[in-house]
Amino acid sequence: MTDKGTNPSPGEPVRIIPPDDFPVEWDSPEEAGLLWSWDNFHAPAPPTPMSTTISEITRRGSDAANRAFGREPGPARRKFINGYPYWVVEPRRGGNGEEFKQRLADAIGSLEKRWVTEFLPELEADLAEMKAVDLDSLSDDGVVAHVDFVLQKANRHWEIHFLVVSPVHAAMDRLKEAYEKLVGEGAGEEAHALVDSTGTMTMEVNRALERLGRSARSSGVVSAVILSGLDANQTITQLQESVDGRRWLAEFDSFMDAYGYRPSGYDMRFKTWREDPSFVFVNIRGHLDGAGEKAAGGGNAGESARIEERVAAALAEREEMRAEFEERLAQVREVWHLKEDHGFYIDQASSSLVRMAIAELGRRLARKGVIRDGEDVFFLELGEATRAMGELTPMQDVVSERAARIEAWSELSPVRFLGTIPAEDPPEEAMAQVRMAKGADESRALEGQAASAGRAYGPARVVITPAQFGKVKQGDVLVCRSTSPTWTPLFSIVCALVSEAGGVLSHPAIIAREHGLPAVVGVIGATDLIVDGQFVEVDGDSGVVRISGVSGISGGEQR
Description:
The chain is α+β, with helices and mostly antiparallel strands. Among the domains are: 2-94 and 412-430, no CATH class; 442-558, Glucose Oxidase, domain 1, CATH 3.50.30. The chain is built from 18 helices and 15 strands. It has helices at residues 29-32, 49-54, 56-68, 97-131, 140-183, 201-217, 220-227, 232-239, 243-259, 278-289, 301-317, 322-335, 338-367, 382-391, 396-410, 428-439, 507-515, 526-529; strands at 2-3, 14-15, 35-38, 76-81, 84-89, 417-421, 445-447, 449-452, 455-463, 477-480, 496-499, 519-521, 534-539, 544-551, 557-558. The strands form two sheets. Strands 7, 8, 9, 10, 11, 12, 13, 14 and 15 form a nine-stranded mixed beta sheet that branches. Strands 1-2-6-3-5-4 form a six-stranded mixed beta sheet, with helices on one face. The longest helix is centred in the N-terminal third of the chain and has 44 residues, at 140-183.
């Protein structure tokens, strides 16, 4: 077996040596012999115990959807290493692969109808019922019961999540397969340019947020208050003192009623927009700070036109493929909006209402002296929190210890892969990590996947959590581990995107294309190798990020 410091011979396993500040202790040689992957997309920072507990809902939803498609879920092994979740997914047991593919193919054709007539009405009714509960009026026992109620709803919602996204992804895979047959092997990723997803709920939220920004800009009084840098509560208080401010706040309240049920990060400890509208003000302030405003949904028209022309030319020469290709393209175009739309109702609204119910549980625990602050509840597991309501056992020492540990872990440098890369079919991403570890100090060019065409140059802003959103200015290059839909308004401020996680069909890639932003994703170690203020060039055509080494102020440019 070789390690990252040598040149591995073909056909040999490769042992990954972790970074010096990220020590790993394996429980057994068998465990060390597996390849472990950090879920840096969904857990870019160490999750809190409450989030880890609630994440079981996601797993149960995935298992239920898999069974509906005829595939028995296999065992999944998870190991927390320095607070970060790493996974080994074992081969699935039972189920016929061809049967699974066929069921997914069948589901594609009926998905839009099921969404309109079945899934969406169910979600809207559930969310209305969840929102209608007045948390303040509940007894302590009523709050515990309400938490159980929203979790039951969320469990079903995550089943719907996977019943929707699995056929959507399958539809795109089928289109990419047909595209490669049509234009040539290895070109499948180009097919995403044929699909326009600007008419999604995600983009609707962004456009509504930009309308708020334009409305604020139209009033000198409102603009001055928002740009003053006050916190959200102080900003609202000052706006209430003027006619223009009250008028604008009425628009703001309507926006929050419609779109405020959005968490600002993957971990439950981050408040929703309704609980803390600071995120909304940060984005509006970013628009007001900038010289101009970039409309959401501009898309990458040039790339789309090029691919459309390539398809038309290929089909003219291969008429026998036209029917199959056009059918698969039509299927993707019909359902692709659901990749974002389902998230508005499930990943965002449903998850927000779960968080808000648990936050109320935390406030009750704080009033009883079990914890110091209501938000500390997220450093407890769900069972610990509900038991504490009856037992009133002080938990603040536990909370403080866990919070300090998570903060320390957040300063470490996790790597995407740990353990041993198998000799047979080694993942290219894992091998790239090994190569990067040997040459990172000398390299000033980082490679990833070309996710959105174009080139841009500007100062980097490394953002790991929503708490850092405020430092992003107009024209910056956003450098992150991953994004979620609630990060999307930042895309109308920055000039380019670099993400450690994701592929060309991931959330950051899709939203970058919708905004016409140059983007490179899957850039190993980007948040460690790029420093705040360094000027970088993002080449979304070649998938390369070049670091100039010069620090400076905001104000990037596209080329």
